[in-house]
Amino acid sequence: MTDYYREYLAVAVLIGAGLAMVGGMLGLGKLIRPTRPQPQKYVTYEAGSDPVGGWGQSNVRYYVYALLFVMFDVEAVFIFPWAVRLETLGVQSLISMIVFIVILALGLVYAWRKGVLRWA
Amino acid sequence: MIVQNIFFWVLALAMVLGAIGVVRSQNVVHAALYLVVVMAGAAAQYILLAAEFVAWVQVIIYIGAVIILFLFGIMLTRAPMGGDTKLDNDQRWPAAVVSVFLAGVLGALLIDAFGKKEIVISGAKGEQLLQVGKAGHLADSIFTAYVVPFEVVSILLLAALVGAVVIARRD
Amino acid sequence: MIASDPLLSHGIDLEVVLIVIAKTIVVFALLLVLVMFYIWFMRKVIADMQNRIGPNNAGPWGILQTLADGIKFFFKEQSIPDTADRWVFRLAPYLSVLPAFLAFSIIPIGGKVSIAGHQTYLQLADPPIGVLFLLMMSGVGLYGVMLAGWASGSKYPLLGAVRASAQLLSYEAAFGLSVVAVLLHSGTLSTRGIANAQAWTSWHSFVTDWYWSVAIVSFVIFVIAAVAETNHPPFDLVEAEQELVGGFHTEYTGIRFAIFFLAEFMNVITMSAIAVTLFLGGPSGPALGFLPQGGFVNLWIMPVFWFFLKLMVLLFGTVWLRASVPRLRYDQLMDLGWKWLIELSFLAVMVTAVVVVARDQGWDRWIAVPAAFGGALAILGLLRLCMPHRDETVSEVV
Hints:
Structural class of chain B: mainly alpha
Number of strands of chain C: 2
Oligomer: heterotrimer
Helix content of chain B: over 70%
């Protein structure tokens, strides 16, 4: 076992501890809470009246934002290592990163210009 | 390295079960969640292979963005609750045969190519290997040897983005 | 490995394991107590700002009010709607609270101390890719919201979940980019490394080394994005009681609801702690000069004191915000995220990068820095000029 694995073992232990905490709280609740089942209790809430059922439609616009987010997430993954090493990599990497960001920013500008980012 | 192997097999088993769950699940959201298990397992395998940065990128991109996008798509459409039997396929047995065959071919290839290699993470050599897996080292090689592919990535992303915008627009 | 905890580097024996477990329990308890204190503090301060008394019955000054509320939740009956996906419905609370705690675990609370002869940091874990870990945790938090809304099998939660997750991911992009300015200065992803890079050396270092002064634009973006990420007012559209009942957790009752509630406030505290670590120097601060440098007070107490002082200031800021700023409209929220914060954070990253490179290459700072700022402002102006106005009609979309 090296330091490397120990560090991640610590992370795994923490995840376990977190799960145990939530599980413990829910378990304790299960032990001490009452259960008096009634069919009306298991009806979904729709402002007091009986639920109509069916699904409310959501706007497709949300999906465009999610797609844009994926792009920027991928971009962030490149920016992070670059940011850490900029001091040693110097001017050349700065220029390549600016080119990278400008190309991607063009995409955002395009989406903006085409009105996809407009909500109302 | 025996501990490492045990972890590998445990993770591999979890990943295989998760993958079977993805295919077998009747519910799209459950399938997506099984896919999360598979992705998380892959990330853990990367950590075992000392590819630290790649592991977290795997988590951030796939679990944090791509599967979120899947879930978004599911929720915006119909979000079926409970089993949806239409997801079943008549050709499941041929598909199973094909996938076992594919797994065999890929496995044989991997064993043939890397079967003799051992990843040493302890000692000086291991320390060197760990450095390769870190973010800084990756940045060094991207911004010295692979600048052009890196810029091409941005054009690829731009194309995907423009495509998404075009599809989302009605006109 | 420079960043790793010295406690773990010399083999593992029982004592070390006990120390790790003790640290975990202490941090858990600390976080829970902080949440309870914060909720009471928030109610009290807002009450004061609105000329009310606020909680005053449970314990002195009502300080036990949150505890009483919490205990009550344990005794409440649970109901899972018939239309719910039971398995995912039960899973969602875990996914909601876990990221808040895990993100807190990589925050350095104090300096290097020795417990029972072992050197250790007052920090639960310090993965070398700490900042990526934070990003990942906010990604996992999204699952909690989305799955809770979907699994309820009800309309309002689903609408609330879609809205909430769109908000969270919009601001996650700006959130991630605003951190980059810090990385440019510190050159490491480890939270301990970042906090150390801002360590207090003199009064002068308060201005030059603490990143907020150098990266003030990034700091402002970070704060706005962090407030939005935690669904804190004025970004609490997720709850939006008037339109969505309770948003994604409408169908949750009793202790499961309490867990979502806990996660929300835990997130506020964790985000404030992250801001302290990344921008405000974490546990660093002036030591007491009249006491020995390596003594108990300066080694144990002072770093922890500074950390909590900074945390309290930020937490008070969040309460102030809650009391005074009205909720944003959804289109305003999206506009702020995509049309302002992301552009600004890109420009901030570029300007900071130019400043860092100028410093390393020995360029004339009086030319390089104003030039970078001017260029950024010019790009921003150009962008604003060529973009469609609000009232201008654009060909209809979607």
